[in-house]
Amino acid sequence: MSSTLNIGLVGYKFMGKAHSHAYQSAGRFFDLDLTPVMKAVCGRNEAAVKEFARQWGWDSIETDWRQLVERDDIDLVDIGSPGSTHAEIAIAAAKAGKHVYCEKPLANSLDDCKQMLAAVRESGVKHMINFNYRKTPAMALAKKMIEADEIGEVRHVRCTYLQDWLVDPEFPMNWRMRKETAGAGAHGDLGAHSVDLARFLVGDIAEVVGETRTFITERPAEGTSSGLTGTAGEGTEPVTVDDCSLFLAKFAGGALGSFEATRLAPGRKNFNRIELNGSKGTLAWCFEDLNVLEFYSTADSRQGFKRIIATEGDHPYMHAWWPPGHMLGYDHTFVNAVADMLQAIAQDKNPSPCFLAGANCVAVLNAVERSVESGKWESVEKID
Amino acid sequence: MSSTLNIGLVGYKFMGKAHSHAYQSAGRFFDLDLTPVMKAVCGRNEAAVKEFARQWGWDSIETDWRQLVERDDIDLVDIGSPGSTHAEIAIAAAKAGKHVYCEKPLANSLDDCKQMLAAVRESGVKHMINFNYRKTPAMALAKKMIEADEIGEVRHVRCTYLQDWLVDPEFPMNWRMRKETAGAGAHGDLGAHSVDLARFLVGDIAEVVGETRTFITERPAEGTSSGLTGTAGEGTEPVTVDDCSLFLAKFAGGALGSFEATRLAPGRKNFNRIELNGSKGTLAWCFEDLNVLEFYSTADSRQGFKRIIATEGDHPYMHAWWPPGHMLGYDHTFVNAVADMLQAIAQDKNPSPCFLAGANCVAVLNAVERSVESGKWESVEKID
Amino acid sequence: MSSTLNIGLVGYKFMGKAHSHAYQSAGRFFDLDLTPVMKAVCGRNEAAVKEFARQWGWDSIETDWRQLVERDDIDLVDIGSPGSTHAEIAIAAAKAGKHVYCEKPLANSLDDCKQMLAAVRESGVKHMINFNYRKTPAMALAKKMIEADEIGEVRHVRCTYLQDWLVDPEFPMNWRMRKETAGAGAHGDLGAHSVDLARFLVGDIAEVVGETRTFITERPAEGTSSGLTGTAGEGTEPVTVDDCSLFLAKFAGGALGSFEATRLAPGRKNFNRIELNGSKGTLAWCFEDLNVLEFYSTADSRQGFKRIIATEGDHPYMHAWWPPGHMLGYDHTFVNAVADMLQAIAQDKNPSPCFLAGANCVAVLNAVERSVESGKWESVEKID
Amino acid sequence: MSSTLNIGLVGYKFMGKAHSHAYQSAGRFFDLDLTPVMKAVCGRNEAAVKEFARQWGWDSIETDWRQLVERDDIDLVDIGSPGSTHAEIAIAAAKAGKHVYCEKPLANSLDDCKQMLAAVRESGVKHMINFNYRKTPAMALAKKMIEADEIGEVRHVRCTYLQDWLVDPEFPMNWRMRKETAGAGAHGDLGAHSVDLARFLVGDIAEVVGETRTFITERPAEGTSSGLTGTAGEGTEPVTVDDCSLFLAKFAGGALGSFEATRLAPGRKNFNRIELNGSKGTLAWCFEDLNVLEFYSTADSRQGFKRIIATEGDHPYMHAWWPPGHMLGYDHTFVNAVADMLQAIAQDKNPSPCFLAGANCVAVLNAVERSVESGKWESVEKID
Lengths: 384, 384, 384, 384
Fold this sequence. Notes:
By secondary structure, chain A is of the alpha/beta class. The first copy, chain A, contains eleven helices and 17 strands.
């Protein structure tokens, strides 16, 4: 392997943009042993993908992901398309000997996840899933603090991921509201992030009981544009995924958890919040104030919730960025993730989090869905 | 009935103090048609209750609640003793023709609640339960705003009542940790408040699924003092109530809810928080910032969460208090509650909330307890 | 002196109500060696003062303060009337051998302050000024922390006291907007509190430079009611005090300060905020979140602003009140102040803060007024 | 002029990095009519500047800014070096017919500013100063709201720019603490931002009175590294600039202002805060929560401070970025600024803010310095 890594990206909308920016920036801010080369971006609409490639500096385009996966000049396939496409692309990429970087959720079904995991393991390629919120300095710092036993044994986990972009019943359909593409609604899109953060910080979830709901069952048909800011077409279309999901969880380590994801919480824009109460302290974080980690320690001589602004030079990732107090935003999480991935590959290690984390996350979501059917607690399948 | 109302109070610890202050203050701040007279306070420790009576201005004392209930010069019996005593006292008081004002939870069992409700109805006395958080100007304002349809159809209810006074495993036992006196732990003590606030603002809860847990199963024995700030005696004693409770709820009106109560959340002192997401807006409140009601409206021309400082002269209860921004505290909720009660009785109406609210609250807690046993969703019994 | 202290209160509006509540409550919550007796309240409108006495439990009334001061059964004169009346009443009370408790500002002129101080010293009576914000647990805790050197040498003092009740130009006149009664506007009313808090926590102010302004120079005439919530009469009246005041300060100890007081800050209801930056840490407090003291220490192993909820049992005044997290409000500051005063008198000590603090506070306000005239830095007269 | 613009950057430290990222990103996120080409970066240390060029993708390097300015293939000179160098470089660049983009403060003296302004005007080149905080969506939104009269006539301006990186007396010297390079300390570095934001939103400042102070007068000598995170060399060096600056201001439009800048406020990392109180409402913003604009309107039916998360698609600059709630950080302000600059140049307009804003900002800082000498109010020179 040379000191460059040729990237082939599938998808050029919201995630395509975020990933492209990450490839452009990672090597500027971080000292990396492997330089990403933006070799090709793939999408079905040739004109649109060409324009995207021009704007973002991709060397070439493809309109069929199969072509991309087969190209000799591609070292890593980055999958930023809807969840329904992940398994097929990832498995093909692995078989073609490409490293795979995949957006969350890993796949829309647990079976797909298992096959993806088997494929990357079999081929020996590197694999990573983009749970980008792990990559905020605040959450990475929380992980270190928990490992250093700063909050003791975790007893309570409280996760809410609230958005409001579907409150308006006139907001038109897009792929995120169709079961065949998205697999689930808030449950898969937002819940996946919460479950991963909780697993990252606290560990495995053993049992769950939950409920999902679709409050707005029909929406204006999709127009010409897509993405998060939609335009309406003619007629209506049924919504086939949930608007929200709630569940309780028993962690393998003994903690009790509460999870809620919704796209119908007016005023909550990207309210991805987690709070952990341990025997010695509390940690709390919310993406809407992403640079701040709240910390309460029973060991402090003066006790109170501390707002740690996680931008000090010795905080995770911050050596690469700005002086203290010069806040980071959403896209920095992608740059940090890509930097982590490139360094891991350069060192011939698997990046973290990998497909195993992705599969175990889907296993939790899957158990919740079974619980919605059964009306009782369901065990979470543990993927090793 | 004269223009005074003679009060007999049972209990002289935390709640006794809060109620005494309310009787002394209600008629000062509010223009009331009925003046409370602090006639007698009752407790088993004669020396202690005498000292309390002297300090707080009670005319006389009793050491047996049965004596108090029978006294001709008592018009209303106020029950501030542990939950295990509520039913017997309340029923006796009702039979003796006294109005009854009872601390929450109404009783430790649903059966007791039903009998209490039957007793007060049969005798025709007035009855009230002290869900004091309803009586903050912020929560009373929230009720008015919901009635005025300012947040539309409620879809999400999110309640957490978090404290941390039991995080220290050396904190000694008291009656609140014994099943025979308290009935339950955080579930009954804190959960009752959350359930009532949710029922007050959103309506009946139809089904629940939940879990409780005792993380610290043994504590130092109780010392000579009691109340919330304990001193330890010799040896240890098993904790027979829960440390925490979590449950999901389906409201009769269609909303989905999440509830959590714990005494093991470091840094959360009295974190009684509720958030409601409706089709047109959001309301959020937390007792740790009790004067503030957060409000988001999709109808605003500039949208954002609004911090309404609920101390304006036209906010509920505030005509009686101070100019805007001159904040209220914990004890004001009791004064407001007592003022409401006295005015209702003066007008020959039943105060709100009454035992029916208390019974329906216990019905929810009861269904959660059944769900903990069964591991599945349980219906909430509706008391009419 | 007996174990009771007979109080004679002058004034029965906003401050009369707050003081009356304090006398009723101090001995309930605190164990005091001296019990206040609400002997007489004085006001010019006989019907109104009678009604006030009835509602608040004062034994008798007077309509001329000279009568009150001369009564043999009065031990302490409490002055809650406008600033223009303070000097005459206080001096007469002192000459009559009564202790004096006076609302802030001590007087409208520095000369009056000096005469008041001379009078109480000559007669040997006890004297106290009601800078009630010192009496919040948070500010009292801040004082202890500064004395324990927790923030090191103070370099920056930042005070803003912002209200908005005069933003509406149709809000009618009252005595607080007339120079002859109030002496000054925001400068005296709000600025006095800020200056006192800064002096309490940091020490003497040596020099100031400042500016005042009246943005709304005329208002509807006063109606029949008064106080903070006014009703308009016919015609208009010129406003003869400032709407706002700003000044910079050099403290004797080396710190630099910034002060601002205004009644024209929309949304700021009682935004009495102070921040101190020292060589080792920062303290910040705002009355709109009065129970919280923010603290940053450079000595913490994890650094961040800590929200100390100043309601723990070992925080100042909290032994008398509620369990942690059961928040205090505005009126509690008056109860704490009265409890301090009564204990000091019982122990034959002068209460704190006394007229000396009141006089030195006015000396600062006075120097600012001179600076507004001269356009340059002015020295603050030091009263010993 | 072609559809590309060749950039020559002077300086490769903190600002060099921020500007380089902006040139790389502006054309990706924004649809620009002019594409920046990263032609050359200039610094005195050849090895360091070469390494910087490699990492950030600059085509070539120079070690003498005079060479850079003279190069035919440079269209715009971007000055990111210390303030003492701005005038000479900018004037030479203008004379060479290059557009000039300059970091703040425009220069260390008002005379230099005037000469710079004269030079760019004479040569007719475009000129811009990088007051990057104007370019947050929140501040740009505030500007629009003020123009739409949403807060009425502004009466109060309250600016604090607080940092703490010099609290540690062992933090070593760097160019920012030497008068010959930096001109001033917090006053010029931080105060310049506050003055510009206030002028941007409220208008000209007519008179000021202020004070500056150096609390820590000597520091360890500078080591081999520089920038904000220093390493110490041997011995000590006197600090020749202020640690802090405070001043009051009279705005030409009638408002009163208060300004404070310091590097000695423990816990305040980049606390660049501004609050404006108008006759109809209040706006408040702090960089430490940069995506949020607080807004209080007396016109709201429910009144309270509104937290506008300025990330909606119709908020300034947000069409180019992410969906609502996907927060921006520090570096986004530079990208927005560069995008504005490129579009203005493409349309043959002068970008905003230009050197005139830079000069008038320095005029305010200069008047404060005169006031520190004179001890009285000083007029601000108005540059047209």
